Amino acid sequence: MKGTAMLRSSRVRPYAITGGRTIARMPLLLETLVSVPDYDLMVHQMLVAESRDIYALCRSVQSIAEISAALDMPLGVVRVLVSDLADDGRLRIHPTAVHAGVPEHMLLERVLRGLQTIKH
Amino acid sequence: MSRKILIVGAGQSGLQLAHGLLQHGYQVTLMSARTADEIRGGRVMSTQAMFDAALQHERDLGLNFWEDEGPHFDGLGFSLAGPDGSLALDWAGRLNAFAQSVDQRVKMAGWLEALEQRGGRVIIHGVTVSDLDRLVNRYDLTIVAAGKGELVQLFGRDPSHSPYAAPQRALSVVYVHGLGPRPERGDLATVNFNLVPGVGELFIMPALTTTGPCDILFFEGIPDGPLDRFTGIRSPEEHLRLTLELMERYVPWEYARAHNVELTDWGGTLAGRYAPVVRNPVGPLPSGGAVLGMADVVVANDPITGQGSNNAAKCAAIYLERILAHGDRPYDQAFMQEVFGHFWDYAQYPTTWTNAMLQPPPPHIVQVLGAAAGHQQIADRFANGFNDPRDFFSWFMDPGKAASYLESVVGAAV
Fold first, then answer.
1. Residues ≥6 apart with Cβ < 8 Å to B221
2. A87 reaches B (C-beta below 8 A)
């Protein structure tokens, strides 16, 4: 029974249009790092309040968890605003250690620090 | 500048509406608690049998990706267990157009990926009330389509439309490969509705899952009765074993074709229960904003009539139409009430019918189900009511109307 179930795996295409390939962006994990590569005062002044705070903070590299803690902003709001800033080319999402396959001690430490200060 | 709409929830209604709005030039952000891969590799969520009217809404948006790949069914079989456990009644009605069940793990994962490819913004996050409170002002309209999380608590229960305070059935679902045919059905592929009075119901339907075509065995057990045994079952193998044991005991005519079944995958089982409920469509937020609920967030019926995904598809189509018709006017609370009103104009019928089907069948319904065995046209009308339950209110739901309908059919046949 188990053998035949194994053989059947993945017979169904995810969906027909692209044969299952996807360009979906990786989800923003707590440890995902983001930064503003080219800080621009004009952009800063143009942004609405909460996006502006993230834009300013990310002049130095931040994790999603750190942004949430530093700005006392719910995680869902951080994820939406970071995603919007990235789509507009204002902010860069770094490939995470997990996705890049590179474990990184510093990263784990800063995630831990972010988690310890996060508020719900 | 195009209007910005936030949709929370990546199920049938949320994703269908997101695709519809995107195609009409709206700027759509959809928040899903899980990635497409997590949905695809997770547990089954539903039985999701969809009939023609609901499937048509998917075709209208070009979302019928699996229509050719997945098995169709063209009829509804009905079997009634007699007091001695034998098969007392058995017949099948023919649907005017085929129905289909595509595992939501396949469908929602695919629709989520397609949404992002087509230009929608997808955020992976399990949304909380405090998230919504801070996000709602950034969007012209925020819609909650996540019927299973904490957000449903934003929408108050409407007691006038919620006759039940407690779950009316204990639910158990198993996806299997290797189920044989019901010989009595011949070439007609059917969803089978087995009614065991006082015990519950067993529905069996063909479906498409992550490992290909399969069948779903779905028990609706009366709480604390002999089918209410799935709470605390840990392994999927044990879940299947118990399902087969109960089939052998209560619906042996279905067990006869189940000797070679096997689980589709480790995530192919589901058990649970919930009280059917209708909620207020406007969810107030602490800071004064408001969000609009849709589909099972606001109308959660028992799955006994298989209407959940059909209602979700119809709700998404109605919300899309009303949002488009609203033009540039603000999406205020009056608009939210009005949109839900349009959905409720329809949903009151499946809701009333579904709540009635949870009760022991009254004499006039027993008569109808009996007469259907001898009159194909009655069986067919019953089957097609699952596609549009409003028709049941012209005959099935009312003793007087049922009597005159039966008389017209039986009288004409003499």
1. B169, B170, B171, B172, B199, B200, B227, B228, B229, B230
2. yes
